[in-house]
TrEMBL record:
Domain of life of the native organism: Bacteria
UniProt organism field: Nocardioides thalensis
Presence of keyword Membrane: yes
Similarity annotation: Belongs to the cation diffusion facilitator (CDF) transporter (TC 2.A.4) family. SLC30A subfamily.
Keywords: Ion transport, Membrane, Transmembrane, Transmembrane helix, Transport
Name this protein carries in UniProt: Cobalt-zinc-cadmium efflux system protein
Main localization (coarse): membrane
GO-annotated cellular components: plasma membrane
Membrane topology: Multi-pass membrane protein
GO MF annotation list: zinc ion transmembrane transporter activity
Domain Cation efflux protein transmembrane residue range list: 19-209
Transmembrane segments: 18-42, 48-65, 86-105, 117-140, 152-176, 182-200
């Protein structure tokens, strides 16, 4: 009655790319934070906070690829430890929101002040950050099409690159106008950008934890495709959710035309779920008629 497919760890093949990117981003975070504190630049500090969140995100991606391959010796984790990535992403959301609130509050507090900001520090660190991000983008691009885990890290670095561009813009504006308030203005913009990304990521985390239907998948289409399998008379009690990034799971009861078609129905349904909907693990029950218990279940 049960059927499933093994989950390939595409991210594991690109783990070294994540490790190198993590090292580069973490090192630059220390530099940017130090220069931001010494120069008094809120734009640098805000981007450093954004970078800190990305360090956590890249670290979580690294840890998740390791934990996902670890065998369960407790006998209590029947789904393994795939959700580690989701919990780490939730932590990243909290950090990003905290950074955004702090930077926004500081930017508002500086309204009316004329802070002395070193434009040279902004330009140099911003340019260095852009170089680091460019290297990381080249590293992660190769694995972004194969693994959602790597793709998430890739998109984090894309956002970092945008933050570095903002720091450079702040440096140019301060140097040209001599007005240090541009630093706070750019910092506020970066804070809004980080907050929006945190909210979007938070919605994805909650959708996974809430066991919602995977994004981009329509349950009605899944039902129609299963009903189109030869030998299937009906489908009920279908549940589809995401266990972790790139790993969709499904359970369903399939009503077969007769007993002789059970094996063919099972094989056909597996193929449909995998090829058309990228559901690698499916637990399917084939029956001749819905049981009374199935009718009584309403979830």
């Amino acid at each position: 009655m049960g059927a499933g497919h093994g989950h390939g760890h595409a991210a594991g093949r690109h783990r070294w790319r994540l490790a190198v990117a993590f090292g580069l981003v973490a090192s630059f975070f220390v530099v940017e934070l130090a220069v931001g504190l010494l120069s008094g630049s809120l734009a640098l500090l805000s981007d450093a906070g954004h970078m800190a969140a990305d360090v956590v995100a890249l670290g979580a991606a690294l840890v998740a690829t390791k934990i996902a391959t670890r065998p369960d010796r407790s006998g209590r984790r029947t789904y393994g430890s795939y959700r580690a990535e989701v919990f780490a992403s939730g932590l990243t959301v909290l950090i990003m929101l905290g950074v955004a609130v702090y930077v926004a509050a500081e930017a508002v507090a500086r309204i009316g002040d004329e802070p002395e900001v070193q434009s040279t520090a902004l330009l140099v660190v911003g340019a260095l950050g852009l170089v680091v991000n460019a290297v990381c983008l080249v590293l992660l691009r190769a694995g972004a099409d194969e693994s959602l885990n790597v793709r998430g890290a890739y998109l984090e670095v894309v956002a970092d690159a945008a933050g570095s561009v903002g720091v450079i813009a702040a440096g140019v504006l301060v140097a040209v106008t001599g007005d240090g308030t541009w630093d706070a203005a750019v910092a506020g913009a970066i804070a809004v950008f980080v907050a929006v990304r945190a909210v979007l990521l938070g919605r994805q985390v909650l959708a996974v934890l809430g066991q919602h239907v995977p994004e981009g998948m329509a349950v009605d289409e899944v039902v129609r495709d299963l009903e189109a399998v030869a030998g299937v008379a009906g489908v009920h009690d279908l549940h589809v959710w995401t266990l972790t990034s790139g790993m969709n799971v499904a359970t369903a009861h399939l009503v077969a035309v007769d007993d002789s078609t059970h094996e063919a129905v099972l094989a056909g349904a597996q193929a449909v779920l995998l090829e058309r909907h990228r559901i690698e693990h499916a637990t399917l029950q084939v029956e001749c008629a819905p049981s009374r218990q199935c009718h009584e279940v309403d979830w």
